[in-house]
Amino acid sequence: MIGKTHIKNIGLSDPIEKLKGVNYKIVKPLKVLGIHTVYDLLRHIPFRYDDFSKIVNIAELTPGETATIRAKIDKITNKRTWKKNMYVTEAEVSDESGMIKAVWFNQPFLIRNLKIGSLVNLAGKAVSYGNSLYLQNPAYERIFESSTSEHTHTGGLVPIYRETAGITSRWIRFLVKNAIGNPRTEKAEPRLGKSLAGLRFVRQSQSSWTKREHSPYDGQAAQMEEILPQEIIKKHNLLPISSAILKIHFPENTDEVKEAKRRLAFEELLLIQLIILKARRKIKKSAAPPIPFDIEKTKKFVASLSFTLTDSQRKAAWEILQDMSKNIPMNRLLEGDVGSGKTVVAAIAALNAASKGRQIAIMAPTEVLARQHFHTLSSMVAEFGFNVGLLTGNSAEIFDSEVKSEYKLKKQEFLNQLTSKKLLITTGTHALISEKVSFPSLGLIVLDEQHRFGVNQRAELLQRYKTVSGLMPHLLSMTATPIPRTLTLTLYGDLDISLLNEMPKNRKNIVTKIITPSERTSAYDFVREEIRKGRQAFVICPRIDAQEDSKIKSEKTYQQELLKKEVKTVKEEYQKLSSEIFPDLKIEMLHGKMKPQEKERIMKEFKANRFNILVSTSVIEVGIDVPNAVLMLIEGAEHFGLAQLHQFRGRVGRGEYQSYCLLFAENTTLANSRRLKALINCQNGFELAEKDLEIRGPGDFLGTRQSGLPDLTMASLTNKILIKEAREEAIQLLKEDSELTRHPKLKNYLARFNAKIHFE
Ligand code: ADP
Ligand code: MG
What we know:
Elements: E1 8-9, H1 24-32, H2 38-42, E2 48-52, E3 55-56, E4 66-80, E5 87-95, E6 98-105, H3 110-113, E7 119-129, E8 132-142, E9 156-160, H4 169-180, H5 189-198, E10 201-205, E11 208-211, H6 230-235, H7 241-249, H8 254-285, H9 295-304, H10 311-324, E12 331-336, H11 342-355, E13 359-363, H12 367-381, E14 388-391, E15 396-400, E16 405-408, H13 411-419, E17 425-428, E18 442-447, H14 455-464, E19 474-479, H15 485-491, E20 496-500, E21 511-515, H16 520-532, E22 536-540, H17 555-581, E23 587-590, H18 596-607, E24 613-616, E25 629-634, H19 642-649, E26 660-664, H20 670-681, H21 685-696, H22 698-702, H23 704-707, H24 711-716, H25 720-736, H26 744-757
Parallel strand pairs: 3-4, 6-8, 12-19, 12-20, 13-17, 13-18, 14-17, 18-19, 21-26, 22-24, 22-25, 23-24, 25-26
Antiparallel strand pairs: 1-10, 2-9, 4-5, 4-7, 5-6, 7-8, 10-11, 14-15, 15-16
Helix pairs in contact: 5-7, 7-8, 8-25, 9-11, 10-11, 11-12, 19-21, 20-21
Bound molecules: adenosine-5'-diphosphate (ADP) and magnesium ion (MG).
């Protein structure tokens, strides 16, 4: 480039394709990561840093430690392994102190970059194999002695980003460097800082930026402007946005990382709190149909149950009925461990609403669950003379309370019964949101397993259900995923919360055991014995990550890949169990590619004990209640989070028999066994949730895809103080100025942020 007057403008809102170094191959993976613009790239925050700050001699390397060496490539070859067509690149490198081998897997192209005789920095973990030492998959960077060498990929703190197939952290680092130049080589950091502050860049040469007078990106390029009010920055001692962005990508030490993260996290938490508080205000401002607490009926209902309510069920029901009796919409989350009995609480709310002629929609994430609610509710409210409906994508059914039986009917007839208010209580899947469905007197929505609904779906739901009269229905969300308190405040700060923190009295502890490969046979013997006694077993197949596959193009293909792989493991497991292990037993499988009718048949038959073992994927196996099933076998248990394992375990132990949860684990690293042991020692979902959060961090805990939250927010969810401060500032800001008119930049940005994270 030397000698060429190469002037290129690049704005933050420019599509990422415009950035130097972005070729057509990586555009798609970048988009999978949510990086569409230069701005998105700069906001793609590293989730950790590898510390390669010290360059050591080869002779000083110790097994198990991570370090950086500077060495010459003496030899480099590609080999193909006999297994699975894998490439291994092996290099011999040396410095004055000695030589060492470095190996990389599946990166045959390295051989083109790392030529014999070239000088490189290699950063990675030294592992011993036999009696020699290797560097395994080290990060690498060529060193050109003539250059004022700065090292993006090796020396110092090296940022590691969230990756996807087709784009590595190395790529991302390279692109970020292209986007903002390398600050550490430019001694004139203040100038860069300043230009970053305004963020109107003109690219003049490889590594310098100057400020522009006018930007073609006005309005949009303002994204990186300081949006936080100066008072807040001062009061909480936060970095200005420009240096925060700089330091998060190119930190000189861990303190800089901390500072930068704190600033960025504070900003996000503040925005989220503002969104939540505004949403809450809005809901509280709309009118809802008041549904007075019918004490007589409620008492009669409770007396009709075959069990006594727990104290926390009573309390939750009372809180819900109080809310519903008001003319502002309830927005309450009923949180309770698997099996804690949330359904009956929802039934009490439904009964009260129906008694006042209000309609109730009870929505579940899967057909199996919707059907279960249909049956449970039918039997619970039958004696009060209410019919119950079931609407799914495939079927419309009604339980007639007079003759105490169900019948199928045409969808249109079902809809007519809703429109004429003949049918008050309806259960169903997301089919309930469909255009044609209308509830003229909707009083209550119950959303079961609410975290299973996409955030968009939830927004759609509320939108969709504005009743004809303009009244907003009461909303009761239910979740069995116990959420640690800090998360609750951040994620569901707009909800009131009722907790079921005790289990019905008749519950037995579930015996939980880790089964190592050598114990497998005896575990199967045990299973057979239980089945001989008449019990049944669930087998959950391991979680699969489709991302291992290259060429994943979009979220949709990702989901399809995932489904395909899951179906495959279920089929394989089914094959293995039915032909090799338990040829004498009756086994069925359940997976996402099956027709709904087929799934339904299998669930019905399992409940009726027509077969012994149900093999299923992790995905569809939620919320079903089969008291005779006492065995829960989880394959690849180490691949699941604690909260999820706990959920699976909650499928058993629902009846009178002793139940067991067997965790089959192959890879019992320290971290894995720590998690699995936590499960063994603890039966309380809330404690487990706290532990899970602590061990894995919030990203894995909630799943970034699921939560819709930005990475940094996720990472800071354990920082109670920061959350509290942000929340207080948000309350303060809105208190004085509910429309944020005094802070136009913040207001502006808030709208964009909201659209981006789809937080309702
Ligand atoms: P979840 O909270 O997981 O949705 P369910 O509502 O499905 O739990 O309840 C699980 C089982 O416990 C059901 O069979 C239900 O009838 C039963 N149950 C609920 N409350 C009680 C109680 N207080 N005492 C005994 N059994 C109960
Ligand atoms: Mg449930």
